[in-house]
Design goal:
The structure holds 2 protein chains of 2 kinds. By secondary structure, chain A is an alpha/beta fold. Chain A contains 15 helices and 18 strands. An 8-stranded mixed β-sheet of chain B has the order 1-4-5-3-2-6-7-8, with helices on both faces. In chain B, strands 9, 10, 11, 12, 13, 14 and 15 form a 7-stranded mixed β-sheet that branches. The chains are: A alpha/beta, B alpha/beta.
């Protein structure tokens, strides 16, 4: 009898929501004693285990300077998950089974001998837990260690093995300007090929950000008007009400431009402005996003770029300090905590349709949203008094909080006279879908284990974004030191930002 | 998320009441639900229309007052995931004193910072009218939204009320653990999904309960090296707790049989009992070639599943995963998300009813 052909897929998977579970693998977390591991990574892994997304045999090897035993590591992680997991209380049986896979190797990140020990431990786990040489190396350390770790991994022969696959997840910040990002790319590429590198931007893991693509490309009615003929302009806002928390030293070196604009804001911009991809494969989608970044016209810094820094003020009924009074920030710091910019995208779809981007700390509320401001109706056959105060259609996609979308339309106020009012048609995730959204990290970590880099930034995306940021930073270097602070905490940013948009006869939305 | 139910009730009673009167009452209730003084009259009306959740219509059928209480209680527990409009039918054909009564209520929940209004109509009918409640349901459905028919207990598959409602609805939601005789009733259930006209998708609480079992079973065969073992599976054994129905065991076996039939693998079903544990599926075992290959999932008392596997005599690490407890409100919520036919369920049902 002829041999049956090999099975190309798992027939039991048909009709189940998740297409497949990842291959059994070991995640090696560098920086396992750090804040990110405790706050985001471990809770995400635990919740994946809880929801049965992880393969049997999945294991973690934590690496950091702190000297811990496996058991101590498990105990610390348990506390971290208890504190930070979105699902509570912690399920003992699931935790115990998950924790059996948690291991720890103390190491200095530049100590080559430690990597040999790590290798031995990993080989042992492959034997015991059937992880078959598959690895995710997660860099949850300070950014200065990224290239050191990559280099040491390569030298220890932990990357190009005969068996299994290796991937590396790199946290932000990915460089601090174009040259350093390029250098980091080169150093990573000496060890990893580009398809093995997963540069994380947790905004891309958010449900609503992915929903922007679904909204645009799964509905027939929006794409035909998604262009310069119908769209007057686009506003993208990432507003935070918090200050810099305890991140003083990092933030003072970075500023809003590097912290938010380079990654989150430009990612949102690419997704809103991109052409429809031919399919949802990683390279196709990322090709389209990069085309947007390439089409951005260099800004006229005098008119199209504003920076600001908050002074003391009131946020939500609480008196808060100004930026220069924050912990571990220089009292004459010129770091920007607010950026507003006007970008032009030079292509057929968007010519003459500006994109206004802004982000800031200590604004009145936390709100991230994308607002598509449509052009006014070309002719209004109503009396002037009737249409006064009527605004043009706006489609708002809210990323946080209250994820959803709303469309502003004009409607007649019932009654014998013709009066109009703008009303909102709202769609809330909460009232339409019955499932709780997973944390962005859960989605991204799972995607990486499955080998799907669609929601991660590619080398050229990162470099194009840095090029834009570098041009802006360069003009700031040439300018005299700014008169900071330029806005009071709890207000919507400096007056110059209002002037930037009002010059075009437009106004910022109040999110 | 804070939930603040603000209930307003009104009652429209009468033998010859007008369906339009119910609609009118609902509109007024929506309007009254707005916070006092928030908006002026006309604007309030706009806001009221806006605030209605736009998800679906739910028609729930109860045969006794006790069942009606159970239904209402489950719906209350669904928190913010309410359907836009719920019609509860208390249909008592066998009571002869004529009666047709409608009770209308609306209540709001806070969803984020917004009020979302939900509406409920309880229709209580005796005698012949009870058989024809579909004629009142039809005009009361919110247009353009899917219609779910939730029938606790075993429906009278041949009854007039069931068939007329089925014609109006997109999905029938039942619980094959509740009053069903698994050896006889799974067949008629499949016929509902395969009706010649007005096909209606079937959702089964048991299918939702079995989801973790199905996921975990499928995971065994995800690694390419293990996948080939699918061809060698020849026996599936399923254990049911002693007291109660074996519908879950039949369904999961039917699922494995129907999936593997697609790759021309014939699997024998063995139904077993474990008198020591409570109702429902408690253990599943797939046997491969030879003695040393098996894939086993065991239900644990603390809402967990333990999975273990042996390949050619080599045992692999055991793993524990959670199965969240699902009360009827959760199961209903899960089933209401789906709208279309689920061919995998229907094929499992077909295999299970043989």
């Amino acid at each position: 009898m002829a041999q049956a052909p090999p099975l190309t897929h798992n027939v039991l998977r048909e009709g189940l929501a998740l297409a497949r579970t990842p291959d059994p693998n070991v995640m090696v977390i560098f920086g396992a004693s750090g804040d990110l591991t405790a706050r985001k990574l471990m809770p995400a892994l635990y919740n994946l285990a809880l929801n049965r997304y992880l393969p049997a045999g999945f294991s973690v090897v934590g690496c950091a300077n702190t000297v811990w035993s496996d058991d101590e590591f498990r105990k610390v992680m348990r506390t971290a998950v208890e504190k930070n997991s979105r699902t509570q209380p912690i399920d003992d049986a699931v935790w115990d089974s998950f924790a059996e896979g948690l291991h720890y190797v103390p190491m200095g990140f530049d100590d080559q001998a430690a990597y040999e020990r790590l290798g031995t431990r990993l080989a042992q786990l492959d034997q015991e837990r059937g992880t078959a040489g598959n690895r995710v190396f997660y860099m949850a350390t300070l950014s200065q260690f990224f290239s050191v770790i990559a280099g040491r991994l390569g030298a220890a022969g932990l990357v190009k093995k005969p068996e299994g696959w290796e991937r590396v997840v790199v946290e932000k910040p990915f460089g601090r300007d174009l040259p350093s990002a390029q250098a980091l790319n080169r150093e990573l590429h000496a060890v990893f090929a580009e398809p093995q590198i997963y540069r994380i931007d947790h905004y891309l893991g958010k449900e609503t950000v992915q929903n922007v693509m679904v909204f645009r490309f799964a509905n027939g009615i929006f794409e035909p008007i998604w262009n310069r003929r119908y769209v007057d302009h686009v506003q993208i806002t990432v507003a935070e009400d918090i200050g810099i928390e305890r991140r003083g030293p990092y933030y003072d070196r970075a500023g809003a431009m590097r912290d938010i604009v380079q990654n989150h804001l430009l990612q949102l911009l690419s997704i809103v402005a991109m052409e429809g991809p031919a399919n949802f494969q990683a390279e196709t989608v990322r090709d389209e996003k990069v085309k947007v970044l390439r089409s951005i016209r260099p800004m006229d810094a005098d008119k199209e770029l504003v920076r600001g820094q908050y002074g003391p003020g009131w946020v939500a009924g609480e008196a808060v300090a100004g930026y220069r009074q924050e912990d571990r920030v220089a009292s004459d710091s010129t770091t920007e905590t607010y950026v507003a910019m006007k970008l032009a995208i030079d292509n057929w779809r968007w010519a003459d349709t500006p994109f206004y981007l802004r982000t800031g700390k200590r604004l009145p509320k936390r709100a991230s949203e994308i607002a598509i401001q449509f052009k006014r109706a070309p002719h209004l056959p109503f009396a002037k008094t009737v249409v006064e105060g009527l605004s043009a259609n706006v489609l708002v996609m809210r990323i946080q909080p209250h994820e959803g979308a709303s469309l502003k339309i004009a409607a007649k106020v019932p009654g014998p006279t013709m009066r109009m009012r703008t009303v909102n048609m709202d769609f809330f995730y909460g009232s339409s879908f019955l499932v709780e959204s997973p944390d962005a990290y859960e989605r991204l970590v799972l995607d990486c284990m499955l080998g799907d880099p669609t929601l991660f930034a590619r080398e050229d995306e990162v470099e194009h974004a840095w090029a834009l940021v570098d041009r802006a930073e360069a003009t700031w270097q040439e300018q005299p030191p700014p008169a900071f602070p330029s806005y009071a905490a709890g207000t919507w940013g400096p007056e110059a930002a209002d002037a930037l948009i009002e010059r075009d006869g437009r106004r910022w939305r109040r999110p | 998320m804070s939930v603040r139910p603000v209930a307003h009730h009104a009652r429209v009673v009468g033998q010859f009441f007008d369906v339009r009167a119910i609609e009118q009452e609902l509109a007024e209730l929506r309007w009254r639900l707005l916070p006092d003084g928030a908006l002026g009259g006309e604007a309030a009306e706009h806001a009221a229309a806006e605030a209605r959740a736009s998800t679906l219509n739910l028609v729930a059928v109860a045969r006794t007052s006790k069942e009606e209480h159970r239904v209402s209680h489950t719906l209350e527990r669904m928190s913010v995931h309410h359907p836009s409009r719920t019609l509860i039918l208390l249909a008592q054909e066998d009571r002869h004193s004529p009666k047709l009564e409608a009770t209308v209520s609306a209540f709001t929940d806070m969803v984020g910072s917004r009020l979302v209004a939900n509406e409920q109509v309880l229709l209580h009918a005796h005698g012949q009218v009870a058989e024809h409640l579909a004629s009142i349901v039809a005009p009361l459905l919110v247009p353009d939204l899917p219609v779910m028919l939730w029938w606790p207990g075993r429906p009278h598959f041949k009854g007039r009320l069931f068939n007329e409602l089925a014609d109006l609805c997109d999905r029938l939601i039942i619980d094959s653990d509740d009053e069903f005789d698994p050896s006889k009733d799974l067949g008629p259930l499949l016929h509902v999904a395969k009706r010649r006209t007005a096909q209606i998708a079937v959702g089964d609480f048991n299918w939702a309960r079995l989801l973790p079992w199905r996921q975990v079973t499928a995971q065994f065969f995800d690694p390419p090296a293990v996948r080939a073992q699918l061809r060698a599976i020849h026996v599936v054994e399923a254990w049911s707790g002693a007291s109660g129905s074996d519908a879950q065991a039949r369904l999961i076996c039917g699922w494995i049989q129907s999936r593997l039939a697609r790759i021309d693998v014939k699997v024998e079903r063995v139904l077993r009992e474990n008198p020591e544990v409570g109702p429902g599926l408690c253990r599943l075992n797939l046997k491969g070639d030879g003695e040393g290959t098996r894939f086993t999932i065991t239900g644990k008392p603390n809402e967990c599943l333990a999975t273990d596997m042996e390949l050619d005599g080599k045992a692999y690490p055991e793993r524990t995963v959670r199965i969240a407890t699902r009360d009827p409100a959760d199961l209903l919520a899960v089933e209401m998300v789906e709208t279309g036919h689920d061919p995998v369920y229907e094929e499992a049902l077909a295999a299970a009813s043989q």
